[in-house]
Structures are given as structure tokens and as C-alpha cells.
């Protein structure tokens, strides 16, 4: 029979696999005989069967022990299914939860997702500078920020988050000023792009403020305000230096043009105009950011209470502190912050206005150059039209000469003065036709 049925499963009688099959079949048969008309018990028996199969596959040694004990274990399992349904369901759920947890961990490992690690420069209140590597989880825990807050200062997203921003949170301030990206906390500041020009300029501006020798024992303002002022000062100072470099070049080009039109001068004007557009857009974005902060008193008062046991009322945004002295200091700092922002807003507006004026002058010069070139092209077009008219009149005279040049007898060649009369007629006709066409074009205001 084995030869006639080659696909039958052949197992030795004393093998563990054969005992597992016999035990499982006996349990199914017994559950169906005891509860033939109950769908609920049938579903429970199926779930119990699945649990038993999982346990059998996972632990073959325990199955061998169960088979040796006989039908008592089966009866106990059947009683467990009949009387303690919740226990079986819970066991199945625990198995499925373990499977899902292991699957999710396996998926995360198989995807190869790594937690980002940032290389930053840490500057403390005493002025010490140190390079650190900090992962995202530790950064969020130490600063009290949320994952969505890191997006504004993440150096890997510098293309998408290029607009300047000053975000105030409960325990930190996030600065995004172009190439400068930093997180300001009560006792330290983390600078991300410390190798770029904005980061270097910010460090050079911040360290003298924190140096005790230059500030007579420490910073005159709180550390957070010192960092914010240093960031704004370094950023606006860079914009002003760019403007100071561009202004004499643009003024020299405006003096030379439009009398001297060369390719080099026009290319230099184009590059200067492009730089002015970039400078004006950056100064305008920074000005808008400062205006938004000054108009939002909630953000300014939130800066004042960082590091203090104070809260803001939701009704009227008033400061409430556990110590009355902290409230007075916070109110004084609020006025200082407004004066500070107003000062840098004026500098930013001055820079933006000067860049816009130079840009308008460059655009007017381009318009003047375009008008000058258009007038020159018009003169050339008029001269070309006059030449075309003259050419047409001469072509008519050549047509007459060609007609007389044919090898056909017209009997004019027999007269002595026929040649001179024909030549004079051609010249007079060409000149007369030219003046007639010129008069017509001037009447129609074409020339």
C-alpha cells in the first residue's frame, strides 16, 4: 500500500511526531463529541487547539511528557477549555502579543533605522566651550522639547526650514537664523552648525559677553537674553557687512552706466543685483520675524519666566510668581527684551531699506539701459529701411538696363543719343522713386 500511495506520510509508531498527531486528533474528536451543537464551545476548542499546537511545536519535550501521562492531561485541558475560557483566551492573547512585539522589533531592526546623533558645540554660562555628540532622545529629554520642535533647528533640514524663526518653549528657546541653528536653555546653549559662518560669528559674539574679565564678574543680563542678543547681533552684523561691500560697487556701476555698455559691466551689474535681491529677502524675513515677536506679548513674557517659578495666566497673560521679587525682575526683563528687539528691528529695517534702494537704483539703471538700447536699435532699423528703399529703386533701374541688354533689336541702337537718354532716364527715375517712397514712409510715420 505504501508503494501504491507514495504521498502518504509515514511515521514510526514510537516517534514523538506520531504521538503528537494521535493526541491532537483525540482532543478534537472528544471536544466535538461532548459539545456537538455549541458554536461558542467549538470556537473556544479551536482556539485552544491553536494554542496547543503552538506549544507543541515550541516545546517538544513537554509534549512527550504529556503523551506519557495519558488521557488525564487531555481531560484537564478539556476542563480548562470548558470551565476557564478566559484563561485560555488570555494565554492566546499573550502569545499573539509576544509575536507582534517580536515582529515589530524585528521589523525595526530589519529596516535599519538609526536614531540621529547630532554633533554640537555646548557653551555654558561660565563661557566654557565643548564639543559633544548627543542623540535625539537625550536631547529631547534634557531640553524638554517635543520631536516636532527639533525640526526647526535640525541641520539635515536646512533646505526646507530656511526661514528665520525664534520659537519659545517652556524650558528652551529655538533659534533658526539661516546658517545659525541653536537651542538655548537656562544654563547652556547647543549650537548645531558651528562650522558654518553663522555659527562661528555667533560664537565669536557670545564668548566675550560671557567672559568675566570683560563684563566685570558675569553677564549683565540673564544668560538666555545674552544668547538671543548675541544671535541677533551676529546675524544683523553679517547683513550690514554684506551691504557695505555691495554699496560702493553698485554706486560705481551707476556712475559708469549707461555711457559705457560692455559685457563685463553688464554682467557685474547682474551679479550685484542678484546679491541685493538675496540680501533684501533675508533682511525682510528677519524683520518680519522680529515684528511678529514684538506683536506677541505672550512670547516675550514667556521668555522672561524661563528658569523661574512663574506662570502665565490664560485670561490676560499676566505673570504670577511664587516670589514677588521674581515678578518684578520678570517685568523689568520684559521691558529690556522689547527695547532689545526694537533696537535690532531698526537696524534690520535700515539694512533692508538700503538694500531695497540700491536694488531700485539698479533696476532703474537696467530700464535706462534698455531704453538706450531700444533707441539704438530703432536708429539701426530706420537706416536699414532707407537702404532697402534705395536698393529697391536701384533694382528697378537694373531691370530697365537688363531689358535693353537683351539680344533683340529695338531700333534704338541706331540712334546716336539713345544710350545717353536711356541712362539719364534710369537715374532720374530711380531718384524720383526713392524720394516718393521716402515721403510716403515719413507721412505714415514709419521713419
UniProtKB/TrEMBL annotation:
Keyword Transmembrane: yes
UniProt-annotated stretches for the region Disordered: 67-108
CDD domains: Mrs2_Mfm1p-like
One GO molecular-function entry: magnesium ion transmembrane transporter activity
Transmembrane segments: 385-405, 417-441
Tagged with keyword Mitochondrion: no
InterPro entries the UniProt entry points to: CorA_TM1_TM2, MRS2-like
Record's keyword terms, sorted: Chloroplast, Ion transport, Magnesium, Membrane, Plastid, Transit peptide, Transmembrane, Transmembrane helix, Transport
Subcellular location: Membrane; Plastid, Chloroplast membrane
Low complexity bias spans: 92-108
Signal peptide range: none
Membrane topology designation: Multi-pass membrane protein
Compositional bias of kind Basic and acidic residues: 80-90
Family: Belongs to the CorA metal ion transporter (MIT) (TC 1.A.35.5) family.
The protein's role, per its UniProt record: Magnesium transporter that may mediate the influx of magnesium.
Protein's name in the database: Magnesium transporter
Species this protein is from: Solanum stoloniferum
Amino acid at each position: 500500500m505504501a508503494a501504491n500511495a507514495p504521498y502518504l506520510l509515514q511515521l514510526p509508531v514510537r516517534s514523538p511526531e506520531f504521538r503528537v498527531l494521535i493526541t491532537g486528533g483525540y482532543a478534537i474528536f472528544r471536544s466535538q463529541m461532548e459539545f456537538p451543537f455549541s458554536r461558542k464551545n467549538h470556537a473556544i476548542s479551536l482556539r485552544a487547539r491553536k494554542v496547543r499546537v503552538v506549544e507543541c511545536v515550541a516545546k517538544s519535550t513537554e509534549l512527550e511528557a504529556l503523551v506519557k501521562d495519558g488521557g488525564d492531561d487531555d481531560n484537564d485541558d478539556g476542563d480548562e477549555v470548558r470551565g476557564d475560557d478566559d484563561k485560555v483566551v488570555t494565554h492566546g492573547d499573550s502569545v499573539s502579543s509576544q509575536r507582534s512585539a517580536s515582529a515589530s522589533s524585528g521589523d525595526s531592526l530589519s529596516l535599519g533605522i538609526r536614531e540621529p546623533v547630532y554633533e554640537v558645540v555646548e557653551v555654558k554660562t561660565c563661557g566654557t566651550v565643548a564639543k559633544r555628540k548627543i542623540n535625539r532622545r537625550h536631547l529631547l529629554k534634557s531640553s524638554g522639547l517635543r520631536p516636532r520642535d527639533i525640526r526647526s533647528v535640525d541641520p539635515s533640514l536646512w533646505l526646507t526650514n530656511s526661514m528665520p524663526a525664534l520659537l519659545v518653549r517652556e524650558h528652551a528657546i529655538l533659534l533658526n537664523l539661516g546658517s545659525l541653528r541653536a537651542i538655548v536653555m537656562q544654563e547652556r546653549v547647543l549650537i548645531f552648525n558651528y562650522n558654518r559662518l553663522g555659527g562661528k560669528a555667533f560664537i565669536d559674539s557670545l564668548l566675550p559677553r560671557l567672559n568675566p574679565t570683560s563684563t566685570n564678574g558675569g553677564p549683565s543680563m540673564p544668560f538666555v537674553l545674552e544668547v538671543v542678543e548675541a544671535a541677533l547681533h551676529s546675524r544683523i552684523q553679517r547683513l550690514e557687512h554684506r551691504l557695505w561691500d555691495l554699496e560702493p560697487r553698485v554706486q560705481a556701476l551707476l556712475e559708469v552706466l549707461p555711457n559705457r555698455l560692455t559685457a563685463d559691466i553688464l554682467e557685474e551689474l547682474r551679479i550685484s543685483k542678484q546679491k541685493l535681491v538675496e540680501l533684501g529677502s533675508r533682511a525682510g524675513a528677519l524683520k518680519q520675524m522680529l515684528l511678529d515677536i514684538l506683536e506677541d506679548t505672550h512670547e516675550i513674557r514667556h521668555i522672561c519666566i524661563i528658569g523661574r517659578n512663574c506662570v502665565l495666566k490664560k485670561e490676560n497673560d499676566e505673570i504670577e510668581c511664587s516670589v514677588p521679587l521674581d515678578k518684578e525682575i520678570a517685568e523689568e526683563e520684559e521691558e529690556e527684551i522689547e527695547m532689545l528687539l526694537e533696537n535690532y528691528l531698526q537696524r534690520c529695517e535700515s539694512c533692508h531699506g538700503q538694500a531695497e534702494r540700491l536694488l531700485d537704483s539698479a533696476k532703474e539703471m537696467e530700464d535706462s539701459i534698455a531704453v538706450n538700447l531700444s533707441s539704438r536699435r530703432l536708429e539701426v532699423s530706420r537706416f536699414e529701411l532707407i537702404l532697402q528703399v534705395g536698393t529697391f529703386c536701384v533694382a528697378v533701374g537694373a531691370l530697365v538696363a537688363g531689358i535693353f541688354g537683351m539680344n533683340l533689336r529695338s531700333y534704338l541702337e541706331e540712334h546716336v543719343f539713345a544710350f545717353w537718354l536711356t541712362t539719364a532716364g534710369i537715374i532720374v527715375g530711380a531718384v524720383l522713386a526713392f524720394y516718393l517712397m521716402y515721403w510716403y514712409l515719413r507721412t505714415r510715420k514709419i521713419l
